[in-house]
């Protein structure tokens, strides 16, 4: 059971998290994010923080939203289909960063909180979220660092959670029509309430707070590596896979569009420069071939 006090505490955490992440990224980039507040006709609104055409990021967004509606979309009730169609409230922070340098990976992170009511009127709540890394040129040390940071965040809440959420991430961020992972994974969870409100919220905070330690060292290590047109071309080609996943499979994108969300904020996750090729494969034993062979496979990194 939740009450208005709990909801306000969660909302304040999400707002603080957005500000913390944006400040850390601005320090790494040197350019300020644009802040764009918006309202949703059906109820609620949000704050989109966006950066484009900077030295580090071609596009990046760190969005906060707090929205409500009268009919919970099916995409948000996959774990509890009996709740679909009920009045709901959702809030969270969602980010996607597309660096300019092909050696710096794209990254996604999301933490969210849903509330609705069962048929008997009882409040039903759950947390969800996670983060995943999508490199274009793979570095084992980067993947290990990212996964170790995720594991460290979850371990205080039970040794069983990281293996479970890592597997969930591997299975979720998978392009079924390509039979290919989107990236090297991370952690993912949804419909989470099993630790009770306080501990479930604390676990969600631990995941959100781990984002900057997980990603910023990788970004800073790779953003000044020399690259040319070959690397940029391959980056644009691989970004096509990112677009395919977000439009075809991603529940967050589907929820936003199904619930009448703000299209600009929802599609902020799309990379600005993308290419598709017909039936193309990289040269054998090339760095581009190594991505699929060594990194776009489900493996234990830590």
TrEMBL record:
Name the Gene3D superfamilies on file: Coproporphyrinogen III oxidase, aerobic
UniProt-annotated catalytic positions: 108
Q: Which PROSITE patterns match?
A: COPROGEN_OXIDASE
Q: In which pathway does it act?
A: Porphyrin-containing compound metabolism; protoporphyrin-IX biosynthesis; protoporphyrinogen-IX from coproporphyrinogen-III (O2 route): step 1/1
Q: Where is this region: Important for dimerization?
A: 242-277
| Keyword Cytoplasm annotated | yes
Summary of the function given for this chain in its UniProt record: Involved in the heme biosynthesis. Catalyzes the aerobic oxidative decarboxylation of propionate groups of rings A and B of coproporphyrinogen-III to yield the vinyl groups in protoporphyrinogen-IX.
List, alphabetically, the HAMAP family matched: Coprogen_oxidas
User: What protein name applies here?
Assistant: Oxygen-dependent coproporphyrinogen-III oxidase
Species whose genome carries this gene:
Undibacterium oligocarboniphilum
